[in-house]
Amino acid sequence: MRRAAFLQLTTSMGAGLALGAMLPVALKPARALAAPATDAFSPNVWVHVRTDGTVKVMLSKSEMGQGVYTGLPMMVAEELDVPMDRIVVEMAPAEDAYADLLFTHDLTTGGSTSTPDMWPVLRQAGATARAMLVAAAAKQWGVSPASCTTANGVVTSGTHHATYAELAAIAATLPVPTNVPLKDPAQYTVIGTSPKRLDIDAKVRGTAQFGIDVVLPGMLYANIQKSPTFGGTVVSYDATAAKAVPGVVDVFPVSSGVAVVATNTWAAFQGAQKVKVTWKPGMTKSSKELFAEAEHLARTTTVVTDKRGAANLAVAPGKELGAVYKGPFLAHTPMEPMNTTVWVRPDGVEIWSPTQVQSRTKAIGMQITGMPADKVQVHCTFLGGGFGRRLHPDFVVDAVEVGKHMAGKPVKTMWRREDDVKNDAFRPMAVSVVRAKLDGGTVSGWEHRTAQKSIMRTWAPPLFKDGLDAFAVGSCTPEDYAFPNAATYYSDHPYEVPVGFMRAPGANWNCFVTESFMDELAHAAGADPLAFRLANLGPKATRARAVLQLAAEKANWGHPLAGTTQGLALGWWGGAYSAIVADVALNGSQVIVKRAVIAVDIGRVIHPDIALAQVQGALNYGLAMALTAKITLTNGVVDQNNFYDYTVLRMNQSPEIAVYIVPSTESPAGVGELGVPAIAPAIGNAIFRATGKRVRELPFSDALA
Amino acid sequence: MKTITINGVDHQVDVPDDMPLLWVIRDVVGLTGTKFGCGVATCGACTVHLEGDAVRSCMTPMSRAYGKKVTTIEGLSPDGTHPIQVAWVDDAVPQCGYCQPGQMMTASALLAKTPKPSDEEIRTALTGNICRCGCYQRIEAAVKRAAGIA
């Protein structure tokens, strides 16, 4: 969604609101954090200069592959003048002292907000520490601070030298300055370079600890048989067969179904499948019925936003065109299945979780166990992928309920892959009805109507206002296009299926509609799709224009690879811009993307190689969303089970990807989502060029079958 | 009690014969580098070497593993210096890293048998290993680097 709207939204969320959205619990005010013995100097909660010469940086964001474990500490390393190989990262506890200022005002990792959120905070934290170490040196040597320079963790003035560790004790006695001047970016030696990722050695040796890898003394393992329908409840159950499975130690009901606890994961899985449960069904609708509802809602809604000019298509000059687009539910399927380990003891609760919502995880622990904030500790592990799935802490609720029942013993509650595919917080299904007026080569009017279940209505209620979920309509009417008369209409689509944020939420569907329909308009106008877009971008759309032209140039637009056709699309996410040219071949209903050229503008780049990896990876993720993936319902039951019928991208389907990053000194934007929005429309537009068939329903494999 | 040899160490285990090797490695022996991804041999996260062959440990019953040599990511090299691990670092392959032990076990088994694989052989071997972060381009590059293919 647009940066301006995003900031406006997030600042409207008061502290603690996000927590209240999930559970009516508020964290107590931040406690002073006692520094461990090895920390010699801690000018703020983020930076700890240690006696051994290392610098510990506290990380408030979950590392799920996007590189915050490296990219955020780089901001401290830059301002503090310490080399990256002397940085040690520790996950921050879920305390308000580490709450973010941009997104939810608690510890949450999502929306590509980590980098923009921490950019001012961590540079200032590092600069403050440096200023105090310099002041300590100046005091000790009787010189002026201005005579001191810093490099590689050493302060120098004339013939004087001292390491940060040596100066730490004095620095710790000095007052903490505020608003310390930051470095001139021209002097950067860390930001803009690509040091070795701080988590990579552990990740190639198999020693990185993900949630699933937590091992505790006497730990038990649990799995839950969940309702086959959404909102279904347990009427009765027979645990006889489950209890006969060797290793099963307990069977009991929890709010999401019937839990089986065992001495190993496999026994828990076997046991949970053998519980005979009589369910009271929840929602029993099928996909077809839901699509019919959504289309009716999209066509009739009166909730309007992003109005321009008359905001009335009828009065726009020219010829009217219209189309209906339909997108399915999608499951995130991060490689690490959902899990959390909970140990409830009389003295407190410990929770080990691969979570994107540390604060909500803590709140869930408090609410279910009745323990106060200072007795509930959350340990955020590495996340085996996130993509937004772990912003929805249903798996934490499961684990805490099980842990409470098994109080005294640590229990790891594991989901099977089937539990994950069938019980995701899905990317909402969508129906979009778009119409436009074409006046020669100019789009004179634009109306984008969409019905999608609101995620914010339950996840952060203050962000669902007057029937509008502004997150759900990103990219429906992009600011960069100079449509003189335009409007977006939105309808929430209430149903029991849980929905959640999926990589580039809103845009991952809406951009497909907008950029496919722009292609339809270009074709109707008899214009080249590139020229048509350039003609309809507004005078302020310099960044969108630049990525579009760069991608077209690098892909040699108009000259497809042998045996392919080209398609082009723009993409937007969180104040960043992308354009993709895809060279696509068809083999029956099989879409083969030979090459994708993507140009991005993400503002200042912290770690170019991680940015590159994120763009490559997001593009692959977007391909998986478009090519074959879909979740469908029959009588309320998810039809798909596992990777054999919920098909995601594999190496043999992954194209050559060329990434071009526009050099920029704008504030850094998040980069994790930006590769997603433009790939599906670029492919669809290429398919149209090859076949004359306009694909308006995803996945492509169904549309071309 | 039966004997299973993992990374050169004998372990006495008392588990059902149909229990998958994966859960013995993880929950009984306590080596957590080998990952659970799907449980039905479709994603490759659980890949280990059984007598040098890459196998999906989530669908390998213990009855097929007793008396055989199992190698997991922890046993690929003592210090992270197997050519595949070195290449994985040099090409900065991992993002979340969860699937990477399985990717590396598949890749190392491939190179042990086919030291100079073709592009087709690399893709055929690794298409069974899903990476949701989408590291495929880098995985392919790293396999070639480890094989000394320019």
Could you characterize the architecture of this molecule?
The complex is a heterodimer of chains A (705) and B (150). Chain A is of the alpha+beta class and 705 residues long. Chain A has 19 helices and 29 strands. Chain A has a seven-stranded mixed beta sheet with strand order 10-11-8-18-15-16-17, sandwiched between helices. In chain A, strands 13-23-20-19-14 form a five-stranded mixed beta sheet. Chain A has a four-stranded mixed beta sheet with strand order 1-2-3-4. In chain A, strand 15 (339-345) and strand 16 form a beta hairpin. The two termini of chain A are 33 Å apart. A five-stranded mixed beta sheet of chain B has the order 2-1-5-3-4, sandwiched between helices. The longest helix of chain B is centred in the last third of the chain and has 14 residues, at 100-113. At the A-B interface, helix 6, helix 8 and helix 17 of A face helix 1, helix 2, helix 3, helix 4 and helix 5 of B.
Write the layout of secondary structure elements.
The complex is a heterodimer of chains A (705) and B (150).
Chain A lengths: L2 H9 L5 H6 L16 E3 L5 E4 L4 E5 L8 H13 L6 E5 L22 H28 L7 E3 L2 E4 L2 E4 H8 L28 H6 L14 E7 L6 E6 L1 H4 L4 E7 L2 E6 L2 H10 L1 E5 L6 H14 L3 E5 L10 E9 L11 E7 L2 E6 L4 H12 L6 E5 L13 H12 L5 E4 L2 H6 L7 E10 L2 E11 L3 H4 L4 E2 L2 E2 L16 E6 L15 H18 L4 H8 L5 H13 L10 E9 L2 E12 L2 E12 L6 H20 L5 E2 L2 E2 L17 E6 L17 H13 L8 H4 L2
Parallel strand pairs in A: 3-4, 8-18, 16-17, 20-23, 26-29
Antiparallel strand pairs in A: 1-2, 2-3, 5-6, 6-7, 8-11, 9-12, 10-11, 13-23, 14-19, 15-16, 15-18, 19-20, 21-22, 24-25, 25-26, 27-28
Helix pairs in contact in A: 3-4, 4-5, 10-11, 14-18
Chain B lengths: L1 E5 L2 E5 L7 H9 L17 E4 L2 E4 L12 E3 L11 H8 L9 H14 L5 H8 L9 H12 L3
Parallel strand pairs in B: 1-5
Antiparallel strand pairs in B: 1-2, 3-4, 3-5
Helix pairs in contact in B: 2-5, 3-5
Strand content of chain A: 15-25%
Stretches of chain B where pLDDT is under 50 for at least 5 consecutive residues are: none
Mind telling me the C-alpha Rg of chain B?
15 Å
Helical percentage of chain A: 25-40%
What is the CA-atom radius of gyration of chain A, in angstroms? 27 Å
Average pLDDT for all residues of chain B: 97
End-to-end CA span of chain A? 33 Å
Shape of chain A, please? globular
Largest sheet of chain A: 7 strands, mixed
Question: What number is the mean pLDDT of chain A?
Answer: 94
Unreliable segments of 5+ consecutive residues of chain A: 1-37
Strand order in space, largest sheet of chain A? 10-11-8-18-15-16-17
Largest sheet of chain B, in brief, is:
5 strands, mixed
